[in-house]
Amino acid sequence: MTDSEGRERVAGGPIGKLAGKAKAAVGNLTGKEKLAREGNLQEAQADAAAEAARRADEAEQREQEAELEARRNAVQTERESLRAELEATAEEEAAERDRARAERQAAAEAQAQAASAEARRRDEQQQAAATEQRTEAAATAEKAEAARLDQEARTAERRAEAIDSQED
Question: CA gyration radius for the chain?
């Protein structure tokens, strides 16, 4: 087979290499230098094609490895981002729990203080009421004592008048 420029196209790959070796061997045995050169050229082209294919495969392998590494890095970055989000969420939840606990504690303390203040107010009212009752009882007792003493004084005055009238 020949191409548009008149060059012969040769089969590639292992068959092309084998054909090239065969041509080179036949050319060398028969003394046909052109056939030997053509065989060597075909073998070299098959080797070059095989090397190019090997290099292309290696390049594709490296590209796939690079893509895989890029995907791994992206997954790792995403994993770290999600871990950071989870940690931030956990910290926010912990802060919210702490805030709620502090609010409950403050409310309980305020309620305890209010109850204590109410108890003190009731105690003070009871003490004031008791003091008022004692004061009223003392005033009543003093009034009664004053009335008794007034009565005694009137009685003593009457006796004194009676004694004075007997002496006169």
Answer: 62
